[in-house]
Amino acid sequence: MKRKIFFSVIIILSGLMSTSLIAQKSSNKNFVKLGVSQINITPDQPVIMSGYDARKTPSTGVHDSIFASALFFSDKQNKALLISADMIGFPFAFIDTVKKMISTKTGLSADNIMLIATHDHGGPAIHTYEDNLPQTNEDYIQILKEKLVTLATDAMSNPQPFSMGVGKGKCDMNINRRAVFADGGVWLGRNPDGACDHELDVIKFVDANNNLIALFVNWPCHGTVMGQDNYLITGDWPQSAAHYIKDSAGKNIVVAVTAGASANINPIYGPGDSFNELEAVGYHVGNEVLKIINQIKTSQVKSIKFVNSKMTFPGKKGWTDQFPQTSVASGSDVDIRLTGLKLDKIILCGISGELMTEMGLQVKKQSPYRKTIMITHCNGLTGYICTDNAFTEGGYETKVSHLMPGVEKPLVQKCLEMIKSF
C-alpha cells in the first residue's frame, strides 16, 4: 500500500514538473530574447589615426586591440540592434551605408539599429573629421563595414531567453575641461568647479542559468587619456575598462561601452603619452562596474520599443580664438538624430553628437523614467552640441561647433518628448 502511494506521489510530482516546464517554455515565448556578439576591428596595417590634427603620419603599431560589440533584442513584434565600437565617431554616410548593409543581410529594419562610437581618440580615421585619407585607410573602412555586418549577423543568429537588471554607481575619474585661463579665455584644461556627471550606469544580462553573458556600460567621458604623441592603436579607457572587467567577470562575456553626455568632460589624466594613466582610468571604471553588478537583481524583459526622431538647426562657421564672439557667421543647417530604445522601464536615449554634460543631466533629471541613460555619438556625427551659456563664455567646444546658439532648450525638450512617447 505504501509503495503504491509512493509511486502515485512520484507520478503526480512528475506531472506537475512537466506542466511547470511546459508553462515555463510557453511563458518564455512572451519575453524578449537576447543575442550577443563581439568582433575584433583592429587594423592589420598602419593607418592614419583620428582625434588629433597634429598626427600626420600613420600608426606605428598596436598597444591594445579594438572591438565592436553587439546586443540584439527580439520578441514576437519588435527587434532592436545596438552596436558599440571603439571608434571616434561615425559619419552619417557611414551609418546609413552600414545600416542598409545589415538590413539587406538580415531583414532587420535599418530604423531599429543603434550604431554607437565610444569616442576613442586612439583608433583609425574613417572620414569622421578627415577629408582625404590614404588607400590603407580606405581599405580599412571597407573591412570595418563588412565586419560590422558580420557582427550583426552573428548576434541575430540565435537569440536566447535572458534576464536583465540595471545599476548605478559613481566614478570620479572624469572632470569638466572648460578651464578659465589668465587672459580670461576658456580653453581645454581642468575645471574642478565645473559641472560634471560622474554617474556610471551598468545593465547586466544573464542567461537562463543565471550566467553572465553581457554588460552595457555608460560613463560620461572623452576617450582622450592618450594624446597626439601616441601613434599606437588603442581603445583608450573604454577598452581598458572592458579588459579589466573581463579579467574578473569572464573572458567570453560581451562588454559594450558607451559615452554619456561628455562634450565638455575629459578623464582626469591626459591627453598624454602614458599608458599607465590609461590603465588607471580603465581600472577605476571597471572596478566600479564589478561592484555594481554584484548588487544588480535581474528579471526577464517583457517588452522592447524603438523610436527615431530628427531635428534640424541653423548652422554656423567656426572662429579662431577661445573668447566669446559678438557675432557669429552662419553656416549650413545641421541635423541632430535622436534614437530611443526602451527595455521595460530602462530608457536608452541616443544623440548623434557630443552633448554637453549639463544637457544630459537635464534630460535625466526631468525624464519620467528613473532609469534613463544618455548615449552620445549614436547614429551619426553632428559634432559639439553646446549649452547657451557656453557661448557666452567661449571655449574650444563653441569655437568648433557647427551649431548656432539656441539649441539647448528645444533639444532637451525634444529628448523628453521622445522619451515620454514610449
Task: Please explain how this structure is put together.
The protein has 422 residues and is an alpha/beta fold. Helix content is 31%, strand content 29%. The chain contains 9 helices and 21 strands. The strands form 6 sheets. Strands 1, 3, 4, 5, 6, 10, 11, 13 and 15 form a 9-stranded mixed sheet that branches. β10 (199-207) and β11 (212-219) form a beta hairpin. α2 (92-106) packs across α3, α4 packs across α5 (275-293) and α6 runs parallel beside α9. The longest helix is centred in the N-terminal third of the chain and has 27 residues, at 2-28. It is globular. 45% of the residues are buried. Mean pLDDT is 94; it is low at 1-26.
Strand fraction equals 25-35%
Classify the secondary structure makeup into a structural class.
alpha/beta
Rg, nearest Å: 23 Å
Number of helices: 9
**Low-confidence spans: pLDDT under 50, at least 5 residues?**
1-26
The count of DSSP E runs of length 2 or more, i.e. the number of strands, is 21
Q: What general outline do the C-alpha atoms trace?
A: globular
Could you give the order of the helices and strands?
HEEEEHEHEEEEEEEHEEHEEEEEHEEHHH
Cα separation of the termini: 61 Å
The main β sheet shows up as: 9 strands, mixed
Average pLDDT, all residues = 94
Fraction in helix: 25-40%
